[in-house]
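Input sequence (558 aa), recorded before submission:
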Amino acid sequence: MNENFESLFEKSQYSENIKKGLVIQANVIEITSDHAVLNAGLKSEALVNLDQFKNLEGLIEIEVGDTVDVVIEDIEDGEGNTKLSRQKAKNEITWSKIIQALDDNSIISGLIKTRVKGGFTVLIDQINAFLPGSLVDIRPVRDTEYLEGTLSEFKIIKADRKTNNIVVSRKAAIQGDNTQSKSELLEKIKEGDIVDGIVKNLTDYGAFIDLGGIDGLLHITDISWKKVKHPSQFLTIAKSVKVKILGIDKENLRVSLGLKQLEKDPWEKIIKNYTTGMKIHCNVTNITDYGLFVEIEQGMEGLVHVSEIDWRNNNPNPQKIAKIGDEIEVMILEIDNEKRRVSLGIKQCQVNPWQEFAEKHSINEKISGTIKSITDFGIFVELEGKIDGLIHISDLSWEDENEIKLSNYKKGEGIETQILSIEPLRQRISLGVKQLLDDPFAKFCSINPEKSIVKGTVDEVKENHALIMINDEIKGLLNISEVSMEKVQDIRKIIKPGETVEAKIIGFDKKNRIVKLSIKAKEAMEEKEAIKSYGLEETESIAKTSLGDLLKSKIMKK
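Predicted structure, token format:
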């Protein structure tokens, strides 16, 4: 039937016969992340969703250069675009097979999908058919769960294209005229035998092989040790093929076959010839969003995950790294015998710039770089080796983070920094700018230890505390409990913004870079010193007399 479509297309190209609904052939010229670009020789190329090219296992079954059958949905949609449908073409081809099987009373293969009311849904290629419960088997079957998800053969009982109504019978296929000959053949063969067969039919999930009276299923996973997108990559209808008997179900007259089992398992070569840390050259066989597949041995692939491609970028675009067929150097990172999986890396074949940086530089070292990007939380600086270091906003200045103006820094400008930490395994380098200058808070603390008396200007007053600007860089905190010897209900009634106050340092909040102040402690200290300065020797008088009285007495003596 495909030949007829192709012939029709060649004879009618650019003619009036090219019309909607026609099945033609198109070439796959490009595959993107979500579309296939097809050229059918029409006015324009067409974009077709990749979902239309997936098999029953959800794998993309086309490559660039393939020729596929498509249906013309629209030659020109008004915007100059050609619309093609792969799904409709599949449906057309499958419907032709179904009608032919109905006319010939022949066998057709399908996948028993799910149980529904009264029977099962059967998937014939991409078209749903109905399998009545009474037509499942020769004998009544109570437990039918084992059938779900299995491949089987059917005869078409009814096929109505207008209503999309297809009814199939598994029972009729099992009861075929050659049931007896099938049973006789099954008695002659055994598991492990290598037999000759003829490829009878190809499906998305495998191939049916005529063993001379009975069909065996060669599942797609048993065709090759390589990843198989479609059986047509390795098999051709009507061609002879040698296969190995993997399993025999005499009760249901089914035979499971294998083709790859005729060859030595390439995994044995992997275990024997390859070790972790080994560098090898391989050809790229497939490219996905999550990495590159390369062929290590014939029939055996390994994966280079995106995170193992570039030291400087943990999520590069694999499409920009290599093309299918390219030879690349990789390092074997892991050989998982249980999962039969080999993990590979590209970046491990190159010098690790993070490790190289760690070997050349040390903590507290001054280093220059170029501002690469500016974020809300800091500045990324490009260093030697084209790796990035981060200046967190808290390490830009000794000032409060809220007062730091990132707008003062420009992308592309050079900047002098100090290395705060180097973590090559985490690919992190922390940098600082403020560390190049003396810490004004630390300097203030060293000059003004606890119990020192300082002056400042009231900056902000709240109900229970006030902020005092000791100088342009140092702030002091005066809590309500430290304002006076007497109890204060509202500090706002005692002091006002802009006033100058004198207080004693009673501590330091180094985390928040705040000096703790007390007027009360200053007054207590002054009172004590005043008592000493007036030479009041009689302790009993001192104990019983107020400071005011003592001062008054001293003045009168003069």
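Checked by second reader. The domain at 353-436 is CATH 2.40.50.140 (OB fold (Dihydrolipoamide Acetyltransferase, E2P)).
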